[in-house]
Amino acid sequence: MEMTKVLSPSQYLSMHIISGNIVQNGRSIQVSWRSSNKWAVQEDLLRATSTYNQDGFDSTKFGLLVKDVKYALRTETNNNNLVLVDTLQRMGIEHHFQEEIQSILQKEYERSACFLKYQNHHDISLCFRLLRQEGYHVSADVFKKFKNNDDGTFGLNLSQDLNGLIGLYEASQLGVEGEHIVDVIANFSGEHLNAFLANSDSCDKARIIKETLKYPYHKSLASCKAKSFINNFKGINGWGKSTLQELANMDYSITKEIHQHELIQVSRWWRSLGLAEELKLLRDQPLKWYSWPMAMLTDPKMSQQRIELAKCISFVYVIDDIFDVYGTVGELTLFTQAVNRWELCAMMDLPEYMRSTYKALYDTINSIGYNIYKIYGRNPTQNLRNTWANLCNAFLKEAKWFASGELPTADVYLKNGLVSSGVHTVLLHMLYLLGFGLTNQNSIYLEDSSVMASSVATILRLWDDLGSAKDENQEGNDGSYIECYMKGQKNGSIELAREYVVKLIEDEWKQLNKKHFNLMDQSLGSFSKASLNLARMVPLMYNYDDKQSLHVLQEYINSMLYDV
What we know:
Pfam family, one: Terpene_synth
Strand content: under 5%
Cofactor: Mg(2+)
GO biological process, one term: diterpenoid biosynthetic process
Protein name: Linalool synthase
Mean pLDDT: 84
CATH topology of the largest domain: Farnesyl Diphosphate Synthase
Number of domains: 2
Low-confidence stretches: 1-36, 45-49
Oligomer: single chain
Strand order of the largest sheet: 1-2
Pathway: Secondary metabolite biosynthesis; terpenoid biosynthesis
Distance between the termini: 34 Å
Number of helices: 24
């Protein structure tokens, strides 16, 4: 279920559906990382980066390329069709071929001897990974055929098979708790890939191994590496290099321009609120906020969902700043009470500096709820307001902890931190924006989505607390799981504490995989995939380098918006 109608390839560039409006030949944007606010958005009236306005767009050519790929998907045999599916996903153009891809994977799953026809590690690993990504229940026991019963390894030949090692490592990222064989192949393939890397005299092979170890496909944003994959693509057994590269580059330009238009809409909305001018300590980062939904909802048709979700995410950051760097405990208590009441008149009980923020939140969330009602016939505003109340309640609890100087136990901190992460709030809005949970029959979706959100929130909270820098060098108290954990350890070191947190994140990914399989079973695929993308975005958002910069995030945004 979607909020925008499906557009043909020729329509993508002739019109962009943004918040219900059609914008033709819109303006592009430029980002200045050197400005005082590197997350600011500037509109470029000269349309310097607009592919459509500069060079035009050959919709006929685009349609023919799509047709050629669809024909290949229907006619390729053996493992070529699986390699083609993987290629389309890595290029970020799979949304044009969902019907064909589902048909291929369903046939693979239905074959009683699905894995018997594949005799090498790479092909079995690829089939396993593609099926699990789509929620098919495939047993990890398929890998036991390669295990050496004498010493428990996977055979001497594999140590010289780079493609097989990469395939096993990628497949192992989709394991769930209790799958011992998956843990074994993860350790085995990881160790041998590192050995390969140490002894490799090929720059190309070294690059591929480093990328695999640092950014395994399942735990990374496909869109983050799509352009590099497109540029380095060499074809599939002699086929597809020019066809797929040309199609992917055309689609990349289309998507880039759509994102530019959306970001302009978000930036104008944010400026219209006037909060950044009124409250100087608030983070003024519409570009950063928009990058979350840009990563989560990759289908170009979902413009309205991305824009509405960016508004929701903006307020998670804004309210976090109110609690972290502005309010006293007494003032924050009043703000929390007002959000729980959800009445416009409640703003009169607030300090002057809080009133505009409260009114902007009240108006924005009510508007989002009404827009969902206009499309789907059900208004979720009551549930939306409840999740904002829960968020503020969690923020207030943290504020009281840090004001008192008494840190809670690590478990208590984390339980509250899952709510204060904002993940439950964001994913509930996304659930409704995608059209789920709005009928009596779909009410079960609310509980299932909350379970998914808990795993994503755990990953986000722990990654955030692993970070070596405060966001934008803000001064404030927002706590740390590691700090609470260290308090409960008598002789623990910070290094051991960080290793423990990394292990928690790895374990939570196994839980997340299991929940993903369950949601795919319940026709919640688009929600589950977007939730996974949120988890994949987390390292980009919280992995600061030595210069206190989010270099990888900046590269990703430049690539998605400017093809830099």
